[in-house]
Specification:
By secondary structure, this protein is of the alpha/beta class. It has 2 domains: 186 residues, 3-Layer(aba) Sandwich (Rossmann fold), CATH 3.40.50.720; 79 residues, N-(1-d-carboxylethyl)-l-norvaline Dehydrogenase, domain 2 (Orthogonal Bundle). It has 11 helices and 8 strands. Strands 3-2-1-4-5-6-7-8 form an 8-stranded mixed sheet, with helices on both faces. α1 links the parallel β1 and β2. The longest helix is centred in the first third of the chain and has 20 residues. The protein is globular and about 60 Å long. About 2% of the residues have low confidence.
């Protein structure tokens, strides 16, 4: 058996009948999100800025689905069917008839608001607008539209075709029916949606980065060695990787920016970046991407 669905589940208890999905931004995350929907029988329209970016998005899709074929998760025929459900374009106007748009552009408020403003004039009044942001205010993004009640956050985790978790972010004005419909839709994709309020970091990153930041502080204060800190969490708590090794994997610059954003918005001391993170970033010790971080 394979995991490819041929038609979307539209049973009565599955919520609103979504059939066509738009994805704006076809980087690693956007292409992964497009693949998830296409795998489950939805028609997908993917939008990028240029033909070059469209070609790169197509390569992401072909590479990811090709890997699934090699692993026996898809047949070549199912891969062809999946790719045939995805239409790629450089015009947002091609999203006029979709039921849901997932924006997965760069993490820039100005860029995302511009996209939402343009989409607001293109899509139908009942089309749900979603953002895959991991750190920006969904409420602020929704203010760029004339109907902020239909705007919601859908934070997929990388790689989107594999990771089950999706954080559904509600604002103070998100319509309850929109929230219910999006959760039902994600369930039909085989995902495990969790709902949270519009606060930087949402659930997973708020908890994870407070923990990682505390581990960096322990190391900075010479409370324990890096090896012992990581071993304690691996063998004592069953984590697959210790916090300092995980910081190296994430990238110390990325971790620092996430902590800064969360601290700036929430002023929770747990998220005030440990001084050692800033020092290491300034010194170019960014973790695996540079070959040196907490570990070499």
């Amino acid at each position: 058996m394979t995991s490819l669905e041929t038609t979307p589940d539209t049973s009565a208890d599955a919520g609103r009948d979504f059939t066509a999905i738009g994805v704006v931004g076809l980087g690693t995350m956007g292409a992964g999100i497009a693949e998830v929907f296409a795998r489950h029988g939805f028609a997908v329209v993917g939008v990028e800025l240029s033909e070059e970016s469209v070609a790169r998005g197509r390569q992401y899709l072909e590479h990811s689905t090709g890997r699934a074929v090699r692993r026996g998760k898809l047949t070549e025929e199912e891969q062809a069917e999946l790719l045939g459900r995805v239409t790629l374009t450089t015009s947002l106007k091609d999203l006029a008839d979709v039921d849901l748009v997932v924006e997965a552009a760069v993490e820039s408020m100005a860029t995302k608001q511009a996209i939402f403003r343009e989409l607001d004039a293109i899509v139908g009044p009942d089309t749900v607008l979603a953002t895959n942001t991991s750190s920006l205010s969904v409420t602020e993004l929704s203010s760029a539209t004339s109907r902020p009640g239909r705007v919601v956050g859908v934070h997929f985790f990388n790689p989107a075709p594999v990771q089950k978790l999706v954080e559904v972010v509600r604002t103070v004005v998100t319509e309850p029916a929109v929230l219910d419909d999006v959760q039902a839709l994600l369930g039909r994709l085989g995902k495990s949606p969790v709902v949270c309020g519009d606060k930087a970091g949402f659930i997973a990153n708020t908890l994870l980065f407070g923990y990682l930041n505390h581990a960096a502080s322990m190391f900075e204060g010479r409370y324990a060695s890096r090896e012992d800190i990581d071993a304690a969490m691996r063998f004592g708590c069953g984590y697959p990787m210790g916090p300092l090794a995980l910081l190296d994997l994430i990238g110390l610059d990325t971790a620092y920016e996430i902590l800064e954003t969360m601290y700036r918005q929430g002023r929770d001391r747990l998220h005030a970046p440990a001084p050692i993170l800033k020092q290491m970033v300034t010194a170019g010790l960014l973790g695996r991407k540079t070959g040196r971080g907490f570990y070499t």
